[in-house]
User: Which sequence fits this backbone?
């Protein structure tokens, strides 16, 4: 059997433990089960395990009804080692969100693994982002997000426009603006720009 671990927590000053319990139940439901294994790990934290892999869309919908609750989801893996590994990955995910003061309330390890590695030294990561993105770092979020998705879609404008639900011409205008804001043209270092944009995606803006 495969397992997925998660950390369910809140940063609220006066935590509602009932919401944490409902979030744990939502994790199990999102994985197609009725009951999670849940451990009280602190005044405002639950460690949770479920069988299988939770559906992210289901979790996002559940979180809409649970203000202040956050969930960091680990990898899905088999056996006792997978049980442990998934928990460690969930902890890594939570720590990254906290380290970057990320506003995201839901994150999965497979989404953030690269960013977690790149930001283990936050000050160095900040310098890398600033050096790589230049003025793009402080540009309107939709400009940076357009470039991030464009790179993720292997620089295919049609696919990127479809993913962003925007017109291709709008996307091309944003890409042109992004390229003007970069210290060096995208074509000269797309991997570095993509990595910096992933950090920016998860990082809390100043």
Assistant:
């Amino acid at each position: 059997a495969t397992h997925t671990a998660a950390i369910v927590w809140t940063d609220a000053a006066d935590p509602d433990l009932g919401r944490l319990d409902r979030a744990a139940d939502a994790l199990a439901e999102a994985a197609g089960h009725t009951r999670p294994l849940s451990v009280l790990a602190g005044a405002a934290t639950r460690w949770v395990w479920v069988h299988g892999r939770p559906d992210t869309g289901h979790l996002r919908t559940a979180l809409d009804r649970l203000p202040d609750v956050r969930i960091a989801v680990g990898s899905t893996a088999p056996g006792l080692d997978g049980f442990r590994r998934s928990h460690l990955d969930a902890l890594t995910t939570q720590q990254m969100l906290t380290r970057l003061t990320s506003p995201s309330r839901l994150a999965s390890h497979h989404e953030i693994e690269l960013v977690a590695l790149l930001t283990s030294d936050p000050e160095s990561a900040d310098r890398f982002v600033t050096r790589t993105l230049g003025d793009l770092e402080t540009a309107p979020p939709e400009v940076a997000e357009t470039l991030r998705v464009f790179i993720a879609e292997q620089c295919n404008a049609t696919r990127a426009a479809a993913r962003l639900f925007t017109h291709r011409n709008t996307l091309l205008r944003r890409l042109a603006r992004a390229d003007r804001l970069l210290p060096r043209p995208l074509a000269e270092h797309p991997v570095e720009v993509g990595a910096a944009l992933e950090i920016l995606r998860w990082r809390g803006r100043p």
Notes: The mean pLDDT is 95. The chain has nine helices and five strands.
